[in-house]
Fold these 3 entries.
Entry 1:
Amino acid sequence: MDKSPPIIIRRVRKVARGHHGGAWKVAYADFVTAMMAFFLVMWLVGIASKDQRAAVSEYFKNPSAVEGTAAIPGTSSLGPGGASDKLIPTANALSMPGGIGPRVGEPGEATRNRIPDEAEARAAAAAEDHRQLEALRRELEAAIEQSQALAPFKDQLLIDLTPEGLRVQIVDRLNRPMFDLGSSRMKDYTVEVMHELGKLLAGSTHRIALAGHTDETPFQGPLGYGNWELSSDRANAARRALLEGGLDETKVARVVGLASSVPFDRNDPRAPINRRISIVVLNLASDGATAAAGEPPPQPAAIPQTAVQQAATAGASAAHG
């Protein structure tokens, strides 16, 4: 009898595990993509202006096809709303206030579609206003040369541009005063000059300020009538003559008399040239000062200044025989 020990065979079952197939790579790629998107969003938020961020915020608050309050109205084919069915913003959206700006690769788009701010609009209006006054100056100078009525007095007509506008001064000459001695009554030739100037200024859209000046010679009329009253009366007489020449009354913004307070010739306060009438065709800035005094200008002024007397002070005129 074989008494050898029995042989026990134990079989180990190996269970094969499933192959992962590189799924971790996909998850990692998704993570990297998400991080890239996150940092891209953070970068865009960092370079966006306050208005642009507000527009983006409103866009996500109101992503509908119905009327919304977004800063940039949507361009959906279903109608206005906060969302759009276009992947790329249209040029109209980019050009609106608070638009999200140009697309990558279009560096000039923001400049072309940017709406000028208030300061730029003011500067553009002031530049156009200056151009118009410069053109009017050339027109007046040419008219004085060609006019039979004005040509004899061209040595008494002084035209220049000042910070207040276009200034036309009619000054006295020693043997050719504008007014009777100590009176606001104009000489006949002065009336003719004023009529011609009224015709020339009638076509301008700007308003004017009139100022009268006397020299420093003491003058005392009845009841305390002096150089202040005389300069005011002469300025008002000039206003009436301009209106008779064709100037619309609504174009007159201010009439003032400054006596001898601002002499033309400071070295000789009694010189005839100090007796003058000044007509200032006001620019937008100076006309704004008149509006501040309660007289509405024909159009809003861009930059407020001091009173229109500055326009007269810069070259105002008066007369005193």
Entry 2:
Amino acid sequence: MKKIFGDKEFIWKLAAIALPLALQSVVNLMVNLIDTIMVGKLGDIALSSVNICSQFPYLYMTVFMGIANAALVICSQAWGNNRPDKVKTMMAACLKLAALINAVFFLLAFLFPSGITAIYTDNAGIIETGGVYLKILSFTLLFQSFSQIIVTLLRSVGVTRLGFVTSLFSCIANVFFNWMFIFGNLGAPAMGVSGAAVGTVIARILEFVMAAGYLLIDGRLSFRLPDLFLKMEKDMHSDFIKLGTPGVISEVTGNLNVSAAAMITGRVSEYYIAANTIVHNIWTISSLFMFGIAMGSSVIIGHEIGAGRRERAQEYADHLIYLAGLIGLLAAVLIQIIAPLITSFFDVSAQAKETAFILKNAASICVFFLSMQFTICKGILRGGGQAAAFTKVDLITCWLVNIPVGFVTALVLHANPFWIYLSLRIDYLIKTIWGLWKVKKTDWIIRLNVE
């Protein structure tokens, strides 16, 4: 560990990317926590409805996470090889692709909100309330992906604070408009759960305006509207397909894993759903730095590979693995410390709070392996061009392990919530073991066509 913190160049590179992402996560966390507490004031059904309905927008965002993260690997290697023109071309391609996908998801959510909600639960009250919420929320699907793509790809060229600034602004707006429309403040109608959706729509539109405005005025890429018509070269297009296809499959598989878990736990009890919502907020607090470290890993590894420094990339990978383990241990301890405080903020039933107490112990175990597999697989190996290999492991653990084991544990054995929670996240352990083997025992570095 002394060797890691003694490598000042590595620490500065990682901090430049990871710290703004961590701060962005803090902002999102606080706002999500406040939003959840606001909706929780409306009761178990309202809280469960919002939690269940978040699954479809999350599926939408995972598609773009796959696209953006694949493009980020290419852009990072291109920037490391002093080819900003390739970064600009990739930005244009991703934004055009996003416009098409946005339209599809919006129409599905707007036209069939109750049908989508019914996929995740058979509770009539949640389906009715969630359907109304999702129909309004569908308008966010016309804007949100553009912001994510812009913020993500600009990280490859050193723009690391934009995500924090846009998130801070949009999240403050989200809290304000939720407070305004949920409870009917400042003369607005008291819309309840629908008000939470309205507040989120307004916030996402503002976030898009800020991100798009920055892209057009930033001097690193000098991106302008006519650049949207740039076309990728054949080799670059091939790399994008090779990384993007498994990247999207991996992210969607992860979402299907979460969605399948929601379908399973949505049939356990409404108390479990509410408890899981509470524990998710506790889990998010504990894992603030994990996303930043993983994203930073991908960019740093990509820069080193693009510049032709393979040995340095391997050395940095070793540093990152040790950091991931340390952060995972700290996160597990933090869950135990903050769980009673966070749970006390929610006005839910005694049964839901009791279940949340049980789930937080399982979450402490899972969060360590989350940190490890996230940094190794979605950071180091993705930055090294190993998206296809990781996707195979994702598919296997999702369809052959998590879903069947979780189904049997929850709905056949009717096990204790502790074991249900663990069984639905057993893939974290499997992917950690596989990722360590891949980095330590194989030649995992692939240099893309960024000349």
Entry 3:
Amino acid sequence: MYDVVIIGGGAAGVGCGITLASANGKFEWAKNKRYLILDANESDLEKASLYNVPVFDYGISGENAIKQMKDHLSFFPSIEFKDDHVLSITGGRGDFTIHTSSANYKADIIVLATGMHKFDIEGLDVEITTHDKVMKPGKIKIEHINNRVTDGIYVAGLASGVKTMYLIAAGDGTKVACDIFEEWTGKLAVSHDSVKDAIC
């Protein structure tokens, strides 16, 4: 059983996952929480070159950026990253089952960081509309209120309708992680880089 399963391992998914996992060694409420990122290797980042993202070397290929992101995740023992394709999700808050090409996973909370090209996961009652902050036609977003789709399901990154910039997508994933912290703590919460208590 995972506390949060994130579907999509691009900027938003990894941004969300690292933020969640970074709280585990700092706060009692995060102790023993477990996270999983499931990624089907379909991120737009795979085909990109990054020139305006200060956390990466100038002109880094998307492929190498993703490798660095995965390497960064390895510093956090509470999170796993698996290459797998999600087919369907059943159940509800506290008892989701994620059915993939190779296994089933249980989760309390789901984060959809599936991008703007399609949404083909069966079993979820989500509303798909037009992504109106992108210059290419035919792109989609998942309807939400403040990144919450329904109880226990969040959406992050391009799937939430944000603009197609790495830092915006990563920031949206980070914001969703902080929203989940607020669910758990009942108050404003963040996880700063400092090891000191960062609850606001």
